Amino acid sequence: MPQYKQFPLPDTAEGLTEAEILTWHVKPGDTVTVNQIIVEIETAKAAVELPCPWAGVVTELLAEPGQTVEVGVPIITIDTDPGGAAAPAPVTPAAAESNGTSSGKIGEEMPGGRIATLVGYGPKSGAAKRRARKDAPAVAKAAAASITPAAPVVRAQEPVAAPVAAPAPVQAPGGYVPLAKPPVRKLAKDLGVDLYALTGSGPDGVITREDVESAVSAPAPAAAAPSFVDNGSRERRVPIKGVRKATAQAMVDSAFTAPHVTEFLTVDVTPMMDLRARLKNAPEFRGVKLTPLAFCAKAVILAARRTPDVNATWDAAANEIVYKDYVHLGIAAATPRGLVVPKVRDADRMSLKELAIALDELATVARDGKTAPADMMNGTITITNVGVFGVDTGTPILNPGESAILALGAIRDMPWVVDGEIKIRKICQLALSFDHRVVDGQQGSQFLADVGALLAEPGIAMTY
């Protein structure tokens, strides 16, 4: 007999609560194998490809591209025993809508001997019950007890065109989710109908195609005069989701939790740039992309040894300050998906050459959108290189869980007083933001001065 299994959206990163369906790679009726990529999703961390945990035949897709789904909610139904005895052909949602079988009583026998259910079309005893969408963790645990999905594969996100139709409504307060099949949801999305405003006429309150079409044909209520001037098509709205949503929330949490202090320092980095030019011609650095960021990273790591407070974390729950004897260095990177902060793990154990190679690889992976979610967690201190955009400095906001972030500005030829004479030198501005709960002014100032000194005269590193 057919064996129907539903694959719930897994938690592909620590703390993930939801993800958006980007692209399905299968459709109802397709035969799938174990670990075959079936769908691409976008989380707050990365674009992720999910493999199929079973072999079988796809019977139903339970979410559409562009739809946001909570972790633990089923997204696909698969018949894992399509060759079983008396196995009827799978019925897709579209076919059910067209032949009228979807209007049968849920839980009752349908034409051809099938049993009507809300999701999938497998045998079911007793009357069907409404699926509790908000109980996603419970669903996930129950599913995990019987299956272990293969590990997700992270890859670059291809550009996804913004939908021109009205976006799918978000979940309403109180956990209510309107019941409707994917074809009906798509119809409502195409017609701009809010499913939350409808009362389903189908069994157990299921919203039908007729309900959506009736809502479109119904006369619209008189609207109040708009308080704005229509400016035609000179505006466009983009849903707040994915990396942008996660970044915004993280910055708000940080700005209104940690008391920020920002200090600035202007540095003559001519000696550092001279050393860089010499090292680029050295045999051991041949083929290595040696950037000012690599020197700044090394300076931050060395300076943190003398001021460990900048590499510590304020743990409000435990009422403790956690000092880290390692440096997971975050590098803020601008990508097509938005701002991400991947980490160089155990950067304090790396030489300048190793740091330069790690930073180059990190930047390449981030630009391609292939940074794994785990590689953007648990940083200890961050550098944001605003100088690559020609910007002198800024007031960076701390990454949540960290106590310091350094902004590296552009390196410019500027007049500078050297031994009482004005000369043209390589000048750079630094800006350090720190959490004043952990780092006092003296400590923050000492750390920034140490970083500046190491960039102004790299030979000082010999004394550290």
SSE topology:
Blueprint lengths: L3 E5 L9 E7 L6 E2 L4 E6 L4 E5 L4 E6 L6 E3 L3 E6 L13 H7 L36 H11 L6 E2 L27 H10 L17 H9 L24 H14 L4 E9 L1 H11 L11 H15 L5 E4 L4 E4 L5 E7 L2 E3 L2 E2 L7 H16 L13 E5 L18 E5 L3 E7 L2 E15 L5 H16 L8
Parallel strand pairs: 13-16, 16-17
Antiparallel strand pairs: 1-8, 2-4, 2-7, 3-6, 4-5, 5-9, 6-8, 10-19, 11-12, 13-14, 13-15, 17-19, 18-19
Largest sheet composition:
8 strands, mixed
| CATH top level class name of the largest domain | Alpha Beta
How much β-strand is present in the residues? 15-25%
Strand segment count: 19
Keywords: Acyltransferase, Lipoyl, Transferase
Biased composition (Low complexity): 84-96
Region (Disordered): 84-109
Domain Lipoyl-binding: 4-79
Descriptive tags:
single chain, 464 residues, alpha+beta, OB fold (Dihydrolipoamide Acetyltransferase, E2P), Chloramphenicol Acetyltransferase, eight-stranded mixed β-sheet, 2-oxoacid_DH_E2_comp, transferase, EC 2.3.1.-, Dihydrolipoamide acetyltransferase component of pyruvate dehydrogenase complex, lipoyl
